[in-house]
Amino acid sequence: MSDSYSEHQNSISAIEATSRFLLPLNTSALNLARTLSSALNGSELSFVTIEKKVIAPSLFIALSTIPSLSQISYVGLNGLMFSYYNDEDDQKLAVFCNTSFSSNWYSMLVNRDTGVLYGKAITLNATNRINETWFQEALNRTEGYFSLGKGWNDDQDSLFLTSVTMDGSGVISVGFPVQVVIDHFAALNFSGGYFHLATVDGDVIVQSELPNAEITVNNNTVLIRASELDGSTIRSISNCSCEPVDGNRVSFHGRIMGEKYTFYCSTVEIAGVQAVYVLAYHKGGLVTIIEENTKLSSLLLILMFVSILVAFIIFIFFSIRAAKREMYLCAAFVKQMNATQQAERKSMFKTRTYLRANHDIRSSLAAISTLLDLCHADAHPHPELAANLVQIKSCNKDLLDILNSVLNIGKIEAGKMDLEEEEFNLAQLLENVVDVEYPSGIKKGVDVVLDPCDGSIGKLSLVRGDRVKLKQILFNLLRNAIKFTSDGHVSIRAVVKKRSFEKEIIASNGNLVSKCLSLLFCKKEDFEDMDALHRAEQNLNKMEFEFEVDDTGKGIPKDKQASIYEEFIQVKDTTVGEGRLEEEGCGLGLGIVQSIVRLMDGEIGIVDKEPGERGTCFRFTVMLMVCQPEPTLEPLEDSVNGGEPRCSISRSPAASSHVILYITGEERKRVLKKYMESLNIKVTLVKQGKCIHRLLEKIKCKLDYSYSNSSRRPESSSANFPAKSASSSSTAGTNDTFAGIKGGSDSSWGQYTKNNSRNCSTFILVVIESSLG
Questions:
Q1: How far apart are the C-alpha atoms of 506 and 508, rounded to whole Å?
Q2: Keywords on this record (predicted)?
Q3: Which of 53, 164, 217, 298 is least enclosed by beta carbons within 10 angstroms?
């Protein structure tokens, strides 16, 4: 109850403070009247003097500078009048009467910057626009007269007017809109109350929104009438004076449509005008309900506390339950971890025992192999016994291979397989692998091809790494490819990939940062983290070598490619890969290959082929240290007249060099043609042997024309060249080697070769496959 009363008093205080804030404008009006009176000095005023000299300019300045002022007027005793006002569009207009006591007034537009009148004058009827009461009251009062009047605009808005006499010769009147007062009171918070404001004469300023009631003010007396419950009759609630008694505001109670209301009323002064306000409050609402229903409010409060308690208990219950579950999971995790560690220990013990047993078995198999060799030497008189011994030795070798594979797996699992690095020639290793497996491919009708690609292997052939394990990887993949390719070809490709040293430096820096942070927390003073940078510097000579083993078999299904590297797993189908060991092997090959590749800092995978292309392409990478060999110059005649052809060439051939290929195998043709053209050698593929002689004649004509323009060429060389090339070609047909290299014994051909090998690197090479010769 005290809170409601306090809110009511605060609202009343806000109303009275707002009314005091709206001070009357009599000070501005008095000052303006005195200024004009002193300027006129009692002289007779004509309309020209009013408009042009003193009155109108002063009125315009006052209208433009005084806040909230909407109208300012001068009315003389002689009937002359001049006034400025603002209309609804904030346009300034002037109303004037230029003849004495005329019934016609005129209105014109005003320049808002200079106050000069312009436009056409509009005639107004003055009979309904002038009120003589305020004029007479202003003349009779020296302190000014305050009233609520009408404006000059078309809507005749209500204005609070302050009128002051000007030495008895006229009246200066200023006014501001009632809407300004309404806006000030509308901004107040009445805490749910209904506010009504009217002058003591009954002119309403702020209309109350009190439902089903009507408030009337007359001479400081408030009359409140309300409708009955049936709505048919209206009765008076109160008719009392609002004059404060001993400084106390008047308050009373009443009922409107059966609802209780409390009313407060008092007198205030708004801009000098005496007014009465009424403030009504409904006695319902939350405060009244609490007052009238104490038991209900207490019950609601108890219910709220019980709800909070229940929610807290539920929270504690679920928290304890979650803690128990977490403890249970932690215990289960510890138990599982112990079981895992125990299983790992058992597995390690089992692996070590298995490896020891494998070593013993391998020793026994080696002894059996030696004994078989001794028996085979004594079995010559008995061919059947010798054949059986050969079969036994083959089976013994197979068992030894399987045992070695198992032993390798055991070493990898135990982490005891190390790389035995040595310097070796990678190009020669690739050629050796292809040479070893080439006969196996020929037996099955499969061509085995070494593709040098961009020749980068020949340029960086001297490397340092584990030659044996790299060879083991290549043999495993190549034998698998040959074994399960029925026709077509198997090719080995090798390239040197450019390394991104930025990644290694970034990785080294990342390790450096993490180690620095650990040093800060562990308070160590050493700088072992710099080892990462030193290792990065030492690895600058390491290069990434990429190898591909591509075949034209049936391929591996995509859904089985992920499992081919698992140990003891075979794809039981006619597809490619480790699963191609349909009736042979134990499923360890590719698993060992993958482990060795990763041991050499590489990765292995299957490359997707184009749609419709047969076979499988295995691609793997290894990291090898590149060794920088000392530069050596090999004489051209040595490489031509003797020795095997290699991937590297000592001198780049001239653009006029020519190679004629008469061989089988589309892949071999493609590889040779691509590689030789990359060395700036022109390559011609011949489909029929009879076309070789005709092609040599064309080449001879071109060379004759070229050599005729050169003074360094002996004339006898061109004459003997075609015959010797032809004979060399036929010789090559029987020896299955490069034509023109080992064929012919004529001294003129040897002289020609030697002369040209020293002067230029131009040559013509005819390659004929022995099966086509």
A1: 5
A2: Membrane, Phosphoprotein, Transmembrane, Transmembrane helix
A3: 298
